[in-house]
């Protein structure tokens, strides 16, 4: 498949198929179920918009009661991080004493998740963990690692399964790398 990006033709190379993702989500949810059990409520904090598809598939495989909340952070313009992090929506107010699982689409430089975790620490939660569909260790600028990682990828720009390019291609059922044609 090819797509047009700013007057440049790009090839789309599938990195993780729909079935790859489904199987990995099953494994991640089994681990989360083991770690949290079925008794305590888990607050799922979905980082919009990128993690929405991943989170909805993951949550349906969790055994414990869940509360679902969302937050929106903006740090990308086109294919590059702007370096500025904006909290577009406020954090949920009542997180005191609760277990929180942040669902992220990708840990790239780590700036966004580092920013979000620092904000969440002010909420007096019982625990905070991060589950990310993708991790780009080569791009990390902060010494942090998600607690649950779907897949590690190289330092490339990817689209699909919630990840976008200027708001487009989130609906692709797979994760794909963009390569100049």
Written overview of the protein:
It is found in: Cytoplasm. This is Hypoxanthine phosphoribosyltransferase. InterPro entries: HGPRT, Hxn_phspho_trans, PRTase-like, PRTase_dom. 20% of the residues lie in helices and 39% in strands. By secondary structure, the chain is of the alpha/beta class. The chain has one domain (2-180): Rossmann fold. It has a six-stranded mixed sheet, sandwiched between helices. A four-stranded antiparallel sheet has the order 1-2-10-9. Helix 1 crosses helix 2. The termini are close together.
Order of neighbouring strands in the sheet with most strands: 5-4-3-6-7-8
Return the CATH class. Alpha Beta
Average pLDDT metric: 91
User: What gap, in angstroms, lies between the N and C termini?
Assistant: 10 Å
Low-confidence stretches: none
Rg measurement, Å: 16 Å
Cofactor: Mg(2+)
GO molecular function: guanine phosphoribosyltransferase activity; hypoxanthine phosphoribosyltransferase activity; magnesium ion binding; nucleotide binding
Pathway: Purine metabolism; IMP biosynthesis via salvage pathway; IMP from hypoxanthine: step 1/1
Family: Belongs to the purine/pyrimidine phosphoribosyltransferase family.
């Amino acid at each position: 498949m090819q797509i047009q990006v700013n007057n440049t033709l790009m090839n789309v190379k599938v990195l993780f198929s729909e079935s790859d993702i489904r199987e990995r989500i099953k494994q991640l949810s089994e681990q989360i179920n083991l770690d949290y059990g079925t008794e305590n409520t888990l607050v799922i904090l979905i980082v919009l918009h990128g993690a929405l598809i991943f989170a909805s598939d993951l949550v349906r495989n969790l055994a414990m009661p869940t509360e679902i909340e969302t937050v929106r952070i903006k740090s990308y313009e086109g294919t590059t991080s702007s370096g500025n992090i904006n909290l577009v929506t406020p954090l949920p107010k009542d997180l005191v004493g609760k277990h929180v699982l942040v669902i992220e689409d990708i840990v790239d430089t780590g700036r966004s998740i580092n920013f979000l975790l620092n904000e969440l620490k002010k909420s007096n939660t019982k625990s905070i963990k991060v589950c990310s569909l993708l991790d780009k260790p080569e791009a990390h600028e902060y010494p942090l690692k998600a607690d649950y990682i779907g897949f590690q990828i190289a330092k490339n720009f990817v689209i699909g399964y919630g990840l976008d390019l200027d708001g487009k291609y989130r609906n692709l059922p797979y994760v794909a790398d963009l390569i100049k044609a």
